């Protein structure tokens, strides 16, 4: 951790755009906020008087509430805008919506959108700090940051760890952000799933791909399960959820192939009995709920640091 | 009015001319062309003394070419006048050195009947700066369901047929189109794209599309249809022209077809031999085009195809869009590049880099498209329309979309410094000073 390291950008667009030092700074800062969250009074006045707008064009419970809580803990004024109640349904363009939000005085714009690249589009056209809360199938940077924070907490390091990511890699922004982060920090990343969802060409990013759990999970230190995205099922990437579950579902037997101390992660929401068996999700190796708690600290850290850039 | 172009280096592939000379124009026609190498001492173009309204153009140090012919232009009128009009689009064409453009039918209403054809032709005569030849739709409403009135549209002035942007997926219908159009001796221009393979795609598929999180269009979406259409052309003996070739595989397939003697011609566009998918990085919607920008190896294959004569023509696929249309989510932004004002300069790079001689390049931008479309354009023959472009091969300029005559400022080449540009365009004797 270098104390001199500061953020270059006013925005958090993706892990791709961050340097290793910047990521380390976020994780280090999050550690301080994690302590704050353990206190009786969980609020700090760091960003009092500033305004955050959570602009969600896609349904989300976990990420939106996590951001909202992080904002409130930083004493920000918070406005939640979701697509169903906004004028988008009346035909307003994305840019107009964003410019209107800016005119309301937003200092932070936390955006989730089904189209990849929307945070990048806003970033160049508005003055507020844009924070990517998930864009299409591109990135979900704060998820990867909270995953890294959780791994650090449990394993003390990332370098040299064997991390298996299982599921729909092609369409998973969580997987993408994690791949970028974990490879930057020197982890051995293994992607596991059906060939239709785990393109071989991803190996050019410095990861390994596997089609079967039995080889992919061997001696893994971390297992990240991804949600089967039912909304993509109509495009027929695999024949049925039953078949998927048989080959790529995580159960106790498969978990036993991993390292004895392996941890199991899931970004949620889970499909119990499909990609993950209940006894695994609720078992001693699972850190799924800790991920949720850590998410608040990491998001506080991101906004705190971006607030510093804005001055 | 009489115009005399003097001292320029004339290149006209239709007559095999490549040398310094003079061209005399009267009443919008070329009436004389005299090459320095052939003329007797002191002989000058004969019209020179007799007309008081003589304009002399000194073209020393410049090249004098037949006006360029673009066989693939979107003029957007009728229906999308906020993107482009026949007036602004032909104005842009002239600025780019083009004297003939072919208007694609995906307007609103679609040019799938003779009233729309007639409207475009009339509007072009009234307001256009250069010649406009309409291309009709192959199928009604470009829906790919039933043939449009190809014959009647031919009678009205359509020179080719295409469902550009909306490929004919039904192979049986495509076969009928190739078969039926034979009697009118017009080419069927195929936008080759298997819509099942390209469904939802917005850029080339590959590692970059995955890491940007954008849905990809594989090269095979184009190649599957190139192969299909070649097979159908072989079967029907119809005239097939493949639009905007973008992949290595397509070049290979067209090469095979030509070797087998199948009547197929092909075009590509400057962006497919100038830039790659990397231009999309940062979600630049101005680099969103269909077919998508591909990879380095495709760019090289396209250049080889041009060099070997596999690709007959360079067209612009000029597709102007309004700023608001492009300032959107990458997924939502429409496909297309406003390309008619940069096409010549980008193509001249092929000459600067020794891939094509200037004469071969000019052939691909004048004579070949005219031959494919069977129109009397792209030549400096005596008696032909005085459609001429004078270019300065050495002059450099920076691409500034705000200075485009086209309403569409959507170019991925903004800020690029290009070498070689038109300085004067003449359309049927009308002179446009460009720079």
Concise structural overview:
Chain A has eleven helices and nine strands.
Descriptive labels:
A: 311 residues, alpha/beta, Rossmann fold, five-stranded parallel sheet, 9 strands, globular, B: 435 residues, TIM Barrel, 2 domains, eight-stranded mixed sheet, eight-stranded parallel sheet, 29% helix, 23% strand
Number of domains of chain A: 2
Mean pLDDT of chain B: 96
**Biggest sheet of chain A: strands side by side, in what order?**
7-6-5-8-9
Percent in helix of chain B: 25-40%
Distance between the termini of chain B: 22 Å
- The name of the CATH architecture of the largest domain in chain A is 3-Layer(aba) Sandwich
Kindly provide the name of the CATH class of the largest domain in chain B.
Alpha Beta
Describe this structure in words.
- The complex is a heterodimer of chains A (311) and B (435).
- Chain A has 311 residues and is α/β, with parallel strands linked by helices.
- Chain A contains 11 helices and 9 strands.
- In chain A, strands 7-6-5-8-9 form a 5-stranded parallel beta sheet. A 4-stranded parallel beta sheet of chain A has the order 2-1-3-4, sandwiched between helices.
- The model of chain A has no long low-confidence stretch (mean pLDDT 93).
- Chain B is an alpha/beta fold and 435 residues long.
- Chain B has 2 domains: 2-64 and 384-433, Urease, subunit C, domain 1 (Roll); 67-373, TIM Barrel, CATH 3.20.20.
- In chain B, the strands form 3 sheets. In chain B, strands 1, 2, 3, 4, 5, 16, 17 and 18 form an 8-stranded mixed beta sheet that branches. An 8-stranded parallel beta sheet of chain B has the order 6-7-8-9-10-13-14-15, sandwiched between helices.
- In chain B, strand 17 and strand 18 (430-433) form a beta hairpin.
- In chain B, helix 8 (248-259) packs parallel to helix 10.
- The model of chain B has no long low-confidence stretch (mean pLDDT 96).
- The A-B interface holds A 16, 93-95, 113-118, 120-121, 125, 135-139, 170, 173, 176, 199, 201-202, 204-205 and B 206-207, 210-215, 282-283, 324, 327-332.
């Amino acid at each position: 951790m270098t104390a001199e390291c500061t953020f270059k950008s006013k925005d958090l667009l993706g892990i791709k755009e961050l340097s290793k030092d910047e990521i380390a700074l976020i994780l280090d800062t999050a550690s301080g906020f994690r302590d704050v969250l353990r206190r009786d009074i969980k609020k700090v006045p760091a960003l009092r008087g500033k305004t955050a707008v959570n602009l969600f064009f896609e349904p989300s419970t976990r990420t939106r509430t996590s951001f909202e809580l992080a904002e409130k803990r930083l004493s920000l004024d918070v406005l939640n805008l979701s697509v169903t109640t906004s004028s988008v349904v009346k035909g307003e363009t994305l840019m107009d919506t964003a410019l209107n939000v800016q005119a309301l005085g937003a200092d932070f714009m936390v955006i989730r959108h089904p189209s990849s690249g929307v945070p990048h589009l806003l970033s160049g056209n508005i003055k507020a700090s844009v924070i990517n809360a998930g864009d299409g199938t591109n990135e979900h940077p704060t998820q990867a940051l909270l995953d890294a924070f959780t791994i650090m907490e449990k394993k003390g390091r990332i370098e040299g760890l064997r991390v298996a990511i299982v599921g729909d890699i092609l369409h998973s922004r969580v997987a993408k952000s994690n791949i970028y982060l974990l490879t930057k920090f020197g982890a051995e990343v293994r992607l596991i799933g059906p060939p239709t969802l785990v393109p071989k060409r991803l190996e050019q990013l410095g990861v390994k791909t596997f089609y079967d759990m039995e080889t992919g999970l061997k001696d893994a230190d971390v297992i990240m399960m991804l949600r089967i995205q039912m909304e993509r099922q109509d495009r027929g990437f695999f024949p049925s959820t039953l078949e998927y579950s048989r080959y790529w579902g995580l159960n106790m037997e498969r978990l036993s192939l991993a390292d004895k101390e392996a941890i199991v992660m899931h970004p949620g929401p889970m499909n119990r009995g499909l990609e993950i068996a209940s006894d695994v999700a609720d078992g001693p190796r699972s850190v799924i709920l800790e991920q949720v708690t850590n998410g608040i600290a990491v998001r506080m850290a991101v906004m705190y640091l971006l607030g510093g850039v804005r001055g | 009015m009489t115009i005399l172009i003097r001292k320029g280096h004339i290149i006209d592939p239709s007559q095999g001319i490549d040398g310094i000379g003079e061209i005399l124009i009267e009443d919008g026609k070329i009436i004389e062309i005299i090459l320095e190498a052939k003329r007797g001492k002191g002989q000058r173009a004969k019209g020179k003394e007799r007309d008081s309204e003589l304009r002399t153009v000194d073209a020393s140090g410049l090249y004098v070419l037949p006006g360029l012919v673009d066989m693939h232009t979107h003029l957007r009128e009728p229906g999308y006048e906020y993107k482009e009009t026949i007036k602004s689009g032909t104005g842009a064409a002239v600025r780019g050195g083009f004297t003939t453009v072919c208007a694609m039918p995906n307007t609103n209403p679609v040019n799938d009947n003779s009233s729309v054809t007639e409207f475009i032709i009339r509007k072009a005569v009234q307001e256009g700066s250069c010649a406009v030849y309409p291309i009709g739709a192959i199928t009604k409403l470009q829906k790919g369901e039933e043939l449009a009135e190809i014959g009647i549209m031919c009678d009205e002035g359509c020179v080719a047929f295409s469902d550009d942007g909306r490929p004919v997926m039904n192979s049986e219908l495509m076969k009928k189109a190739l078969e039926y159009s034979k009697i009118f001796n017009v080419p069927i221009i195929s936008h080759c794209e298997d819509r099942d393979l390209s469904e939802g795609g917005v850029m080339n598929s590959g590692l970059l599309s995955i890491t940007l999180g954008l849905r990809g269009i594989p090269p095979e979406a184009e190649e599957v249809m190139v192969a299909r259409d070649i097979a159908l052309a072989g079967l029907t003996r119809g005239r097939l022209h493949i639009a905007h070739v973008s992949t290595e595989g397509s070049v290979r397939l067209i090469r095979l077809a030509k070797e087998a003697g199948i009547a197929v011609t092909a075009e590509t566009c400057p962006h497919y031999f100038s830039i790659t998918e990397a231009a999309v990085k940062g979600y630049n919607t101005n680099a969103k085009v269909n077919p998508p920008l591909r990879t380095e190896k495709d760019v090289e294959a396209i250049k080889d195809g041009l060099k070997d004569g596999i690709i007959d023509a360079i067209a612009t696929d000029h597709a102007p869009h309004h700023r608001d249309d492009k300032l959107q989510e990458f997924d939502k932004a429409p496909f297309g590049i406003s390309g008619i004002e940069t096409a010549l300069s980008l193509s001249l790079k092929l000459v600067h880099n020794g891939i094509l001689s200037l004469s071969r390049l000019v052939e691909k931008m004048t004579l070949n498209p005219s031959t494919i479309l069977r129109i009397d354009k792209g030549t400096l023959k005596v008696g032909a329309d005085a459609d001429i472009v004078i270019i300065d091969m050495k002059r450099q300029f920076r691409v500034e979309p705000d200075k485009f005559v086209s309403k569409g400022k959507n170019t991925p080449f903004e800020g690029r410094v290009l070498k070689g540009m038109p300085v004067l365009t003449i359309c049927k004797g009308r002179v446009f000073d460009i720079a």
